[in-house]
């Protein structure tokens, strides 16, 4: 009963997500990527200061639009991810302009912008011509145009989605689909489509509102000027138009080549014509901080540790000096350091080997993966209490002439190397004889050494 996936989805700006880059930010579990060519790590929109995955829509949901994939446990399960969506009303299609952002099995979570500029939610079966599954809504309207935290869950009977403004813990929009249970593998994406599009052979603009068929014929001509050689854009969905729609579907790898212009084919034609004409493409969607749990909601993503600085005085040191005060600075992803008196220091490493140094050329090597915070106690004099950040309180108690032992317990709720979950803590003990031992709880790392 625990987290099965934790990944900040951050990486080198400008690079496309890859197996290796996603593995580098994986705290727990594995996330794969399919068709990454229309995505990259972007600093245009960040969460907790980290880059995010920018996704441009492709021509369809199969192997054209980028998607991140992972395994979902059996119900109950909770999925948490962050997304920033474009102002979808700007496209001019009202609530029918959609982003397919998450799929579980054969059902997608579709987000749209309401007429009032708030987030709207639907579940949509894979067949976009099928009716969506509309939820019962509760909670508070949440405006689009900001980072949203999506928490989707299922207990095996019902499915619930809560959408929060960013890291907020109150004020969500809550959508409940009673009697709808989702299961299967999970993917994140940002496929763009327009709901309710369907033109079929035999249709004619003379019997429709506006000129939808002529508009689609002109998109075919923008994609391929040699299309429709006999009749051109005449507003009639005849055999020639049917053949060229099929040619378009085959060229772009559609699984179903039926000659009809449904929501998916229509969205692909929008994209192809925009690319051909040099028009603005559909706005991207950003994704960040994915987590999956089989017991409870992951909640907001914790901020990463950047730098923590605070003074120390007579730190864990076999011969501390009460008048010696130095500073501690711990950049993310580098070795940590507790500085004591007269060159004595306690060094932790973030997945590296550190040293615990006594006074004046006394060194006892200790291996450990150590973050910063906690307490150092057991001293006769020179006690300071200081507060670092975030959620770090450190008490240092120096001691005199190596007559008392000192214990350092190290723990930080935060991240290391852009990881977001609480890390193990490490206890280190320095005795008057100079022997030092360290144990990481729950036991991943331990080491010991003797002063020399």
From TrEMBL:
Q: Which domain of life is it from?
A: Bacteria
Q: Where is the Peptidoglycan binding-like domain?
A: 213-269
Q: Which InterPro entries match?
A: Peptidoglycan-bd-like, PGBD-like_sf, PGBDSf
Question: Which residue ranges does the record annotate as region Disordered?
Answer: 429-452
Signal sequence range: none
Q: What is this protein called?
A: Putative peptidoglycan binding protein
């Amino acid at each position: 009963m625990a987290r099965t996936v934790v990944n900040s989805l951050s990486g080198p700006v400008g690079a496309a997500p890859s197996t290796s880059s996603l593995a580098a930010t994986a705290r727990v579990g594995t996330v794969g990527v399919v068709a990454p060519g229309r995505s990259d790590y972007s600093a245009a929109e960040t969460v907790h200061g980290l880059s995010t995955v920018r996704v441009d829509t492709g021509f369809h949901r199969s192997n054209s639009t980028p998607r991140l994939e992972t395994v979902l446990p059996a119900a109950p399960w909770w999925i948490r991810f962050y997304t920033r969506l474009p102002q979808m009303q700007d496209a001019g299609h009202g609530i029918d302009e959609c982003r397919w952002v998450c799929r579980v099995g054969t059902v997608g979570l579709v987000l749209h912008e309401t007429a009032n500029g708030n987030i709207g939610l639907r579940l949509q079966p894979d067949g976009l011509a099928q009716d969506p599954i509309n939820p019962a809504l509760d909670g508070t309207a949440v405006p689009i145009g900001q980072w949203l935290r999506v928490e989707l869950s299922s207990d095996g009977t019902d499915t619930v989605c809560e959408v929060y403004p960013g890291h907020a813990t109150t004020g969500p929009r809550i959508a409940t689909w009673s009697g709808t249970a989702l299961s299967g593998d999970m993917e994140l994406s940002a496929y763009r489509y327009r709901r309710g599009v369907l033109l079929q052979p035999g249709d004619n603009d003379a019997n429709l509102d506006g000129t939808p068929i002529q508009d689609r014929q002109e998109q075919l001509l923008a994609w391929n000027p040699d299309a429709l050689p006999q009749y051109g854009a005449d507003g009639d969905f005849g055999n020639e138009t049917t053949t060229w729609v099929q040619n378009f579907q085959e060229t772009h790898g559609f699984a179903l080549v039926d000659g009809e212009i449904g929501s998916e084919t229509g969205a692909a034609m929008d994209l192809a014509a925009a690319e051909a004409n040099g028009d603005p493409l559909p706005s991207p969607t950003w994704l960040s901080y994915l987590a999956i749990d089989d017991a409870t909601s992951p909640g907001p993503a914790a901020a990463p540790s950047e730098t923590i600085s605070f003074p120390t005085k007579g730190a864990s040191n076999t011969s501390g000096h009460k008048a010696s005060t130095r500073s501690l600075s711990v950049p993310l992803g580098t070795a940590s350091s507790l500085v004591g008196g007269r060159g004595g220091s306690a060094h932790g490493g973030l997945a590296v080997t550190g040293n615990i140094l006594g006074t004046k050329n006394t060194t006892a090597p200790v291996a450990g993966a150590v973050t910063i915070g906690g307490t150092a106690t057991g001293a006769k004099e020179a006690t300071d209490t200081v507060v670092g950040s975030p959620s770090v309180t450190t008490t240092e108690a120096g001691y005199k002439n190596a007559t008392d032992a000192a214990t350092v317990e190290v723990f930080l709720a935060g991240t290391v190397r852009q990881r977001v979950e609480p890390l193990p803590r490490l206890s280190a003990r320095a005795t008057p004889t100079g022997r030092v031992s360290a144990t990481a709880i729950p036991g991943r790392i331990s080491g010991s050494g003797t002063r020399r």
